[in-house]
């Protein structure tokens, strides 16, 4: 499926300075996998060392958080848009 | 090192926010412009600390709040270029927890609030390899007109 992944501003330096990447994938996980294979420097900002999406990284398919769909197995259709939105946390 | 302009008006607003929410952490978005010439904060967007279970030593901004801040920034022709929060009774140094939850590029401004009084403000950026925060030198804005 031909889909578009929107790249948030802080991660554009690791994605060829592009604000979106078009790629073909069957699931959200496959799309993020292709993205981070093409732009390997992105990977550590999206995934932990053991390969899980970082807890503060939220992935939306169109306007739906994939946690409420089928997570990374969420299927894609032509024209879908995937967005990556951080939640911000910290403290002393 | 890039020029990072946080003028005294906004520094004061961040200090006030930190004192108001003491002993809890405050948080908000830094709205501004970023270019090869540097980064300048031109507005702040206060946010509610969503960390209800340990707000004295943690803060949390949800993805929905992040999107709200981005919409607010776009509405006035700015970008979200970073985030601020307070460290009640603690120095303005990023913690290991801060590092784990950060992305490069953003400016992370921290204000130290000691016994209810805001003191040092510092800004930090995560290194591209995620291994450490690097200090960002804050300028009060003498060169503001150099930025678009």
If you had to describe this structure to a student in words, what would you say it looks like?
The complex is a heterodimer of chains A (92) and B (148). The mean pLDDT of chain A is 96. Helices cover 16% and strands 28% of the residues of chain A. Chain A is an alpha+beta fold and 92 residues long. Chain B has an 8-stranded mixed sheet. Chain B is globular. The two termini of chain B are 19 Å apart. The model of chain B has no long low-confidence stretch (mean pLDDT 93). The A-B interface holds A 9-11, 13-14, 41, 44-45, 55-56, 58, 65, 85-92 and B 25, 27, 51, 54, 57-63, 65-67, 79-80, 83, 85, 87-88, 90, 94-95, 97-98, 101-106, 108, 128-130.
For the terminal residues of chain A, how far apart are their CA atoms?
44 Å
Summed up, the helix count of chain A is: 2
Order of helices and strands of chain B: EHEEEHEHEEEE
Most extensive interface between two protein chains, with residue counts: A-B, 20 and 35 residues
Task: Please write out the topology.
The complex is a heterodimer of chains A (92) and B (148).
Chain A: E1 2-6, E2 20-24, H1 28-38, H2 43-46, E3 57-61, E4 64-65, E5 81-86, E6 88-90
Parallel strand pairs in A: 1-5
Antiparallel strand pairs in A: 1-2, 3-4, 3-5
Chain B: E1 4-5, H1 8-21, E2 27-35, E3 38-47, E4 59-61, H2 63-75, E5 79-88, H3 96-100, E6 107-114, E7 117-126, E8 133-136, E9 138-139
Identify the notable features of this structure and list them briefly.
heterodimer, A: 92 residues, alpha+beta, five-stranded mixed β-sheet, 6 strands, globular, B: 148 residues, alpha/beta, eight-stranded mixed β-sheet
């Amino acid at each position: 499926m031909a889909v578009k992944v929107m790249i948030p501003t802080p991660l554009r330096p690791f994605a060829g300075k592009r604000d979106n990447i078009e790629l073909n994938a069957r699931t959200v996980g496959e799309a993020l996998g292709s993205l981070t294979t093409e732009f390997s420097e992105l990977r550590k900002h999206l995934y932990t060392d053991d390969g899980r999406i970082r807890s503060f990284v939220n992935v939306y398919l169109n306007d739906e958080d994939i946690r409420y769909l089928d997570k990374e197995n969420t299927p894609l259709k032509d024209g879908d848009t995937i967005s990556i939105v951080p939640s911000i946390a910290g403290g002393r | 090192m890039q020029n990072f302009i946080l003028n005294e008006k906004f520094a004061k607003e961040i200090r006030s926010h930190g004192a108001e929410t003491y002993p809890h952490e405050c948080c908000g978005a830094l709205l501004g412009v970023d270019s090869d010439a540097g980064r300048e904060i031109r507005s702040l967007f206060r946010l509610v600390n969503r960390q209800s279970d340990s707000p004295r030593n943690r803060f949390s901004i949800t993805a929905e709040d992040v999107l709200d801040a981005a919409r607010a920034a776009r509405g006035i022709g700015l970008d979200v270029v970073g985030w601020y929060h307070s460290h009640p009774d603690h120095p303005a140094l990023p913690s290991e927890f801060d590092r784990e939850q950060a992305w490069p590029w953003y400016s992370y401004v921290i204000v130290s609030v000691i016994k209810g009084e805001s003191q040092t403000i510092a800004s930090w950026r995560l290194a591209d390899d995620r291994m450490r925060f690097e200090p960002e030198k804050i300028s009060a804005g003498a060169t503001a007109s150099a930025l678009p």
